[in-house]
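Minutes, project check-in

Agenda point 3 was the complex the collaborators sent over. CS summarized: two entities, 611 residues total, and the question is how they sit relative to each other. Sequences were read into the notes so everyone works from the same version.
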Amino acid sequence: MSATLTQTGHTATPAIPAPQSPGRLAVRRFVRRPAAVIGLVVVVVFITVAAAAPLVAPFDPIKTSWTLIRKAPSWANWMGTDESGRDVLSRVIWGARASMMAGVVSVAIAAGIGVPAGLAAGFLGGRTDMLLSRVVDAMLAIPNLILAIALAAFLGPSLENAMIAIGVTAAPVFMRVARGATMDVITNDYVEAARALGNPPWRVMLKHVAPNILPPVLVQSTLAIAGAIIAEAALSFLGLGQQPPAPSWGSMLNSAQRFLSQAPWLAIFPGAAIFLCVMSFNLVGDGLRDALDPRGK
Amino acid sequence: MRGFLGKRLLQVLPTLLLVSVLVFCLQQLMPGDPALVLAGEDHDPKVVAQIRNELWLDRPLAVQYAHWIGNVVQGDLGFSWRIRQPVLDLVETKLPVTLQLGGMAFVIALCIGIPMGVLSAVQRNTKWDYIANAIGLAGLSTPNFWLGIMLILLVSVDLGWLPPSGYVPLTENWQQSLATTIMPAFVLGNAIAAVLMRHTRSAMLTALDQDYVRTARAKGLSETRVVLRHALRNALVPVVTLGALELGTLLAGAVLTEQVFSIPGFGKLIVDAVFNRDYPVVQGVVLVTATLYVLLNLLADVLYVVINPRMRGA
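CS then shared the predicted structure for the full assembly.
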């Protein structure tokens, strides 16, 4: 920054750039990554399409037509029709709704359980930490898809139960992330100062520690949404998620298997939608991680 | 080393105990009374009472758990309600199929992931690095059941090179066995390859920055020798152990892969059990999977100490 002359003619000291908030710095770092920005744009498109499905979908996703069975992609049906004559594009659009909802709700459940538990474990330490950590170790010992399948099986097959199963199985990772971040944050001077000022422990935990563990939780949430979308598709593919005739990318792939040689488009489009959506969330997650924690780059 | 092993074993035991509690609790989530489900449509009160008594359902939960875990410890995982066979027998029949598939998938993952990670690190910030990273990200974002369906479409339906489904045991005909498992193994190994590629890249970047690599270069060794003999050898230590942790992902991924390729393994066993409401099998499979996973983690830790001399004194 060059030195400037003041009105009185004296040479001013070099101007010090105004300090930027960590949030602004993170946004600047994020937008410098083209892959992350593209990912974010695609995620926004998917969310918009999912929210506006009734307006965007060209046809009713569950209306069958015996004259349109397994028609190849055409101008009338851009992604073709399925074994019941339903428009595949409309089902992919409505399927986005199920996937997005599963992604967001499951991650909300996971964060709702895992973050308070991790915060308590990291902040209180001692027996609370030991007990919660052992439970988390036990849950992490069961591969999460197997646990989600077992939970969905015992709860009964439905999209709601699939979301609960995915949320519960993803909670331990949130607990670990929140615990680690809390243990890091409580070593800071401002936490020590808040304690020294006589704040009760719950106030220190909620007002001074909790807001500062949000960046890693946010990164984990974005990556977990990608995982939850795949998990919902997997459960629906196995018949444990969204039930027919309601559209879901996973259940569409399940029925597409039977007509692979006659109607390959039935498998190509829903799978491509999962791939694109999951990859976009992963790109955003990677971008956020680099933007919020440049040391870990 | 013995102290380390003992300490890790002591940590594993409570984890396994808690896993068993979680698996036992799964049954409590089941809607309705299991005795009514088993008694058939008549719901004869005498039959229902007899089933309750046989399955210990009329006892307090803690007693039920103690009875169940006592049996599990003696190798009795229960009795399949549907197939009318001990769960342990079913596990013993299906597990080798999944282990063969998982073993092949892991080898494929190593063969793809490590060279790609090395290439990406050596060619850092070049087009090769970007391509390898893009392939890695795509691998992580592709649902393996979709990849399986697409490969069946291309390799089996269009090209007719490999059978689309089925399984031939290795002992029966090894060529046929390989033909039926190579495609599912590739599908299963794909996501692990992406994870290994990321770990290898990161470990290689750290290794290439070390003084001993600089010294090796200063001695005039060829770049290939520096990369393969000096950097990779050290970078592989964390990669091998982190890779071993991915074996749990293999067990979970096998559920979907076996479903797509109709392979009668462990994964298909749990899915069939879910649809037949055969809850003892579901519980048994989850318990065995979790135990395997915990033991594999333990093995990974031991492996880390064995191949990393600096950890031996720790």
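Noted in discussion: The interface with chain B takes residues 134-135, 137-139, 141-147, 149-156, 226, 230, 233-234, 237-240, 253, 256-257, 260-261, 264, 267-268, 271, 274-275, 278-279, 282-283, 286 of chain A (CB under 8 Å).
Follow-up: revisit at the next meeting once the mutant set is ready.
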